[in-house]
Design a protein that fits this description.
By secondary structure, the chain is α/β, with parallel strands linked by helices. It has helices at residues 8-11, 18-24, 36-51, 74-86, 103-107, 109-125, 145-148, 163-171, 189-197, 224-239, 246-260, and strands at residues 2-6, 28-33, 57-61, 92-99, 130-135, 154-156, 176-180, 203-205. An eight-stranded parallel beta sheet has the order 1-2-3-4-5-6-7-8. The radius of gyration is 17 Å and the shape is globular.
Length: 262
């Protein structure tokens, strides 16, 4: 299996054996970091996995759009991003983007704009995939079509848009991928409709572990990928769309993952 978006540092608080579970389930994953401490922890896991010949872990870094100058030093975080990219230590830039969910986040829109510009420029300069967090802000993505088309991959974490918006991104020539997690199992209608209808070569799986638990669970984990994959396959079968077999969907999403992370 493959997990396009997870947070091993945060997952550690809930499950001390999470990395053992990842290896046991043979889950290749992309880990998102927002601080030096998180990134170095993830980088250590990735190095150990390589040395042991185990399923890979890919390391990404960005300042999350929900972070504010009151919580962190924006300049120091962006400097660290540029340092990692220059040193060749990044497998992806993300999760970055825009979050206009509530009044607090909307008040920081200008800061989000400034941070996103640096993240996008870094991904372009170093030819890295870009992982996007976009909440109630899809309108802010389309003006960057020309830049996004130049990236090796653009990944929407927990796809937040509509079917029409996703189709428009594909038509604009962006090498875009739509990642789905437990939202497709929680009656999120747009996510379900998108997962059912998008071309299979554009679909990815994720847990956002530990932050998107299945109903009845305290946190999400790598084991949830089987349930998510099965759920998407069922949605596709109901809609009469191709790739409605769980095993086939797993193979295709795995191939998609390794088109993004190399």
């Amino acid at each position: 299996m493959t997990d396009t978006h997870c947070h091993p540092w945060d997952l550690l608080e809930h499950n001390a054996d999470a990395e053992i579970e990842r290896r046991k389930t043979r889950t290749a994953a992309a880990a998102s970091s927002t601080s030096r401490e998180q990134f170095e922890f993830h980088e250590g896991l990735a190095k150990k996995a390589r040395e042991d010949g185990e399923t890979p872990l890919y390391c990404c870094f960005a300042l999350h759009p929900q972070l504010s100058p009151e919580k962190i030093s924006i300049s120091e975080g962006l400097d660290y991003l540029l340092y990692l990219a220059k040193e060749g230590r990044l497998d992806g830039v993300g999760e970055t983007g825009f979050d206009l969910y509530n009044e607090t986040y909307r008040a920081a829109e200008k800061v989000q704009d400034e941070m996103f510009a640096v993240h996008l420029e870094t991904a372009l300069k170093y030819n890295l995939p870009l992982i996007l967090h976009v909440r109630r802000a899809m309108h802010k993505i389309f003006p960057f079509t020309r830049e996004l088309k130049k990236l090796p991959a653009v990944i929407f974490h927990s796809w937040p848009g509509s079917r029409g918006e996703g189709e428009a991104l594909v038509k604009r020539g962006i090498n875009v991928f739509f990642s789905f997690g437990t939202a497709v199992l929680k009656n999120h209608r747009e996510a379900m409709a998108s997962a059912a209808s998008f071309p299979p070569e554009r679909i990815l799986l994720e847990t956002d572990a530990p932050w998107q638990p299945l109903r009845g669970k305290a946190f999400s984990s790598y084991e949830d990928l089987e349930v998510i994959c099965t759920g998407i396959a069922a949605l596709r079968k109901e809609a009469g769309n191709p790739c409605s077999n769980r095993e086939e969907l797993e193979q295709i999403t795995t191939a998609n993952f390794f088109r993004c992370f190399r």
